[in-house]
Amino acid sequence: MDKAILIAALLLAVIAAVQGANCVHRGVRSRWTVVWLLLSFVAQLAVLSMRSQLRGACPLGDTGEVLLFSAWSLTMCYLLVGSVYRLSLLGVFTAPLVSFLLGVALVPGMMEPNPEHAVSSDVWRGLHAAFSVLAYGALGLSAVAAMMFLVLNQQLKDAHLTTGLFQKLPPARELIFVVRRLLILGFAVLTMGVGCGVLMKTSSEVVNKHLLVAFGVWGCYGLLLLVTWLRGVPPKTLAISVMVLFALSLMVFVLL
């Protein structure tokens, strides 16, 4: 049952991506992208609820659940941030990433069909995992906004000023503002996750390895924010740094 709903969530995200890209190509506003992603969000939440009941704990026990939780967090951040900053085109760039995460989560072997029900759970470990993945939603959306900035920058360099994509993209200053705000938000939530990780029981080597990686990712994002605050970072450099950091950190956690 949960797999069927997860497939539905993937299809809804794919529809959002394809329909949004088609609207951008035709130079019209994509009014349905947010609707498709909202429906996908509800389906993702339903699957997470089912997995939580199966595990008797926060559904972050395997790679598939981590990817699903990341997609859910990313979608939630888009639904909140997109409406606050009126970035309707953000959904067109977010939907492909959500589709990718859900698609990989559906690969056989990524998600345990019958996970073991937890007899007891470490509260701090659950909070560490939940805050960390929620942080990845904000940091992932920051990377998406950074990609939009780089696309806009390239469109300006190539003098493609009449394309539907260029006309729908927000101003560069607004995009960089969103990148910075999401970066700060993601780092703040990740800090809470790392703090909970320090308090959790670290009896296994795998848990210790995850915690060390979390510290490393937290340190890299903290260093980027510190340099940005003290010396300032050019917008293009900041956008590239945010995208590279998110891609590398996501790859590291998935491969652990």
Topology of this protein?
Blueprint: H1 2-26, H2 33-55, H3 63-84, H4 90-105, H5 123-157, H6 164-168, H7 172-199, H8 205-230, H9 235-255
Provide a descriptive summary of the structure in words.
This protein is mostly helical and 256 residues long. Helices cover 79% and strands 0% of the residues. Helix 1 (2-26) runs antiparallel to helix 2 (33-55), helix 2 (33-55) packs antiparallel against helix 3 (63-84) and helix 5 packs antiparallel against helix 7. The chain has helices at 2-26, 33-55, 63-84, 90-105, 123-157, 164-168, 172-199, 205-230, 235-255. It starts with a helix and ends with a helix. The model has no long low-confidence stretch (mean pLDDT 82). The longest helix is centred in the middle third of the chain and has 35 residues, at 123-157. The chain has two domains: 1-111, Four Helix Bundle (Hemerythrin (Met), subunit A) (Up-down Bundle); 121-256. It contains nine helices and no strands. This is Cytochrome c biogenesis protein CcsA. Residues 65-252 form the Cytochrome c assembly protein domain. GO terms for molecular function: heme binding. Pfam families: Cytochrom_C_asm.
